[in-house]
Amino acid sequence: MRIGIVGAGSIGSLFAGCLTSTPCDLLLYGRGLHAAHLTVDGLKISGAKEEEISSQRWEVLLEEQDLPDSVQSSCDIVLLTGKASAFEQHVGVAKHLLRQDGIVCTLANGLGHEERLVLEFGAHRVLAATTTHGAYRPASGNVHWAGVGEVHLGPFIHHHSEQSVQTFLKHLDDAGLHPRWEENGRALLWNKMLLNIAINPIAGLLGKENGALLEPALFESAVGVLLEGSMIARAEGVQLEDDELLIDRLRHVLETTSSNYCSMLQDIRAGRETEINSLNVEICRRGEMLGIPTPLNQALSSIIQHLR
Hints:
With about 300 residues, this protein is an alpha/beta fold. The protein has 11 helices and 12 strands.
């Protein structure tokens, strides 16, 4: 099986590094100095796992160069692991790499990405996917595995079964990425969305690790943001768990990724565009359509959008 990882940043590099322990063939697409390190020097993983991986273990495609014909339609699976801001570009790359009968999924934060993939690839080639693994890059060519989580996969529109993607699931399991199959892909995506809107903007504004949000007053604030989002999901007909279970999941993720710097904080520190438009702003947009007020998400959205 050949797996293409498009957007080889923190999470993409972590997944690639872990997958080198399996027999799958890896094709990475990245940019800048980090991708150059992956091409020449390989990758160093620290944190939950300590390992140095040779650049010979994968092929790297550089964003700064044209896609070669040699990799066209060569991947059985394409996993989009880049930022929401790069999603459209990465969809174009995936169209070049994916086989006619291949499967594509994205770990980009926010909602609406899967619908876009369905339009480009067809419902039968799209899976819903999320992850709670935490990672950041302390330097180019390095990734720190700050929190061991899980990879959740499930059907989106097409009725995929666990058996139909068993080989992919086995590779993820052998890589130590802890895959879990979920029958309700829409709820799966919303559950991750609720975690992201509750954690990312608050941790980003604080400039602290996820674990800082376990402090009672901050945790209460995060819960309020999450519950606003859950109202929107239920109004759209998504079958979520009870609020108590949603809150317990939030606490569990904060505990297991306590030392992780969330992606929004990393973006703020680097002066990059954040994913707020795909997260809290999207909650506000959907709330307006439904006539449901979302003041906490609106406040966080406004502050993040006006950071300079």
